[in-house]
Specification:
This is SDR family oxidoreductase. The chain has helices at about 5-10, 30-40, 50-60, 75-90, 115-140, 175-195, 210-215, 220-225, 235-245, and strands at about 20-25, 45-50, 65-70, 95-100, 145-150, 200-205, 260. By secondary structure, the chain is α/β, with parallel strands linked by helices. The protein has one domain (about 15-265): Rossmann fold. Helix 2 (about 30-40) crosses helix 9 (about 235-245).
Length: about 270
């Protein structure tokens, strides 16, 4: 077999005409994911509950009608099913699903109600499974595809509770980390199960990407920076490349992988 030409390598990250679905694609990190995908030629559908929020985030940056909105509540199987059917009818079968949406309730580690704990688990792990399950017929229609789940550094390590001593309002709750650990294992499970069908399943574990609201607390940001080998918090654009890579042909031989984007937080 002849070696690939230079021109072939130039297309490793080309997403031209690839249809990518992103749940929760207009939030702090979701918006950067979407913009990174669009910059490499993808067509993107953002699945979320509020179209007004989508329009607010992308009104000035919608390129040639390549980003669209589809109402979807990832907590509801009928809503997910209806959303995927509508996308298939309007845009064709998707090539990539990114499970980014999350929901939770409750924070105090030793005082969560049963309902809060179950809700938090479903908000990361349950919703990811629900969307993964329902997208499979459409990926199979395309002869394969990619699923990218969003986990977290707190699915890998416990919080350093000293970072929250002066800022307890930002304390990361236990059901969040437990759910994100489940997302990592869910990724491994389905990468093995779906590999024979040419469906790659990977996940990304971000770390220390506080929202704009959290960044208003300079003292807490300093605590995060002090614990990170790179000495700073993550910027949304730091995360975008991971999703471009895992959505593109460059990662066709990568599956079951947890790509950690945390500035080195979890190496210590």
């Amino acid at each position: 077999m002849a070696a690939p030409l230079l021109a072939d390598y130039s297309k490793l990250f080309d997403l031209t005409d690839r249809l990518i679905l992103v749940t929760g694609g207009y939030g702090h990190l979701g918006r950067a994911m979407v913009l990174g995908l669009l910059a490499h030629g993808a067509r993107v559908v953002v699945l979320a509950r509020h179209e007004a929020s989508f329009a607010e985030q992308f009104a000035a940056e919608i390129p040639d009608g390549r980003v669209h909105f589809q109402v979807c509540d990832v907590a509801s199987t009928p809503s997910v099913q209806a959303a995927f059917r509508a996308i298939r009818e309007q845009h064709g079968a998707p090539h990539v699903l990114i499970n980014n949406a999350v929901y939770s309730a409750g924070q105090q580690p030793d005082a969560l109600t049963d309902e809060q704990f179950a809700h938090g688990l479903d908000g990361s792990a349950g919703s990811a499974y629900r969307c993964l399950r329902e997208v499979l017929p459409y990926l199979r229609e395309n002869g394969g595809g990619k699923i990218i789940n969003v986990a977290s550094m707190y699915g890998m390590v416990a919080p350093d509770f000293a970072a929250y001593d002066a800022h307890p309002q930002f304390l990361n709750p236990p059901h969040y980390g437990a759910a994100k650990a489940a997302v990592i294992q869910l990724t491994k499970y389905f990468s093995s199960y779906l590999g024979p069908e040419n469906i790659q399943v990977n996940c990304v574990s971000p770390g220390a990407f506080p929202s704009a609201r959290v960044q208003e607390q300079a003292g807490f940001v300093a605590e995060l920076e002090r614990r990170n080998p790179l000495g700073r918090i993550g910027r949304p654009e730091d995360l975008a490349g991971a999703f471009v890579y895992l959505s593109a042909s460059a990662s066709d031989f990568v599956t079951g992988h947890n790509l950690v984007v945390d500035g080195g937080w979890t190496i210590r």
